[in-house]
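Q: Could you fold this chain for me?
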Amino acid sequence: CFLGSAAFLYGILRRFVSFLPALGGLLVYLLLPICLLYSRAIMPESCALLFYCGGVYFLLRWFQDGHGPSLYCSALFTALGIMEKTPVLFVGLLVLAVFWWKLGKGCLKAKGFYGYGLLSLGLPLLYYTYASQVATISFVDGIATKHIFSTKILGLFTREGLAFFWRELPLFFGWGVLLAGAVGFALALYKRAHFLSVWALAFALEWATIVVVIQFGYYLIFMAPPLAALCALLFQSLFAQR
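A: Sure. Below is the predicted structure, expressed as structure tokens.
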């Protein structure tokens, strides 16, 4: 599953950068400590990454090429990603942005807009409704109402929340990659690669609202694909300077 997510990520990168920068971004993704660890763990992260990256790839294909079936492939992949790990929901911010860029106010009248929402959110809703009725383990029962949607959601502004990121980010990503990603984000804004910048911002919001509350390191992993893409954008700029 993780290698499948890498294949989709490479497909995304090649739509923004040339071969060598795309290869560099792919290597960043493959060799990030958090990916090395959780791609081999018996946990749902790798499967979620596969469907999440697939959803983003098909969304980008629809956005750039207008390929109709890709839109519903994206919705299906996104639904399966959410069914694996609910934080994948944050990719919805990118979906909304893409619809706005492509259709403007007309997206509110587009059947594809509502079809995407129905498929990507309806399937997970049915799944979680069913799962809640048959589940025998209640480890995460009410985790959203008890922890996330509470006063703890402001954890980013506490000493404990900042200490969590200061401890976990260099462990799972490394300061070098984080710095390269920050420069790549500035380049994305400068070059108007808004798809990549909004993608990164969506999961920065996940970090700031979900990860800082739960404080499980593996929830950081959904930033790995957009971070690798931003690094690839930096590599492209460096190669252009010879």
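A (continued): The chain has a mean pLDDT of 91.
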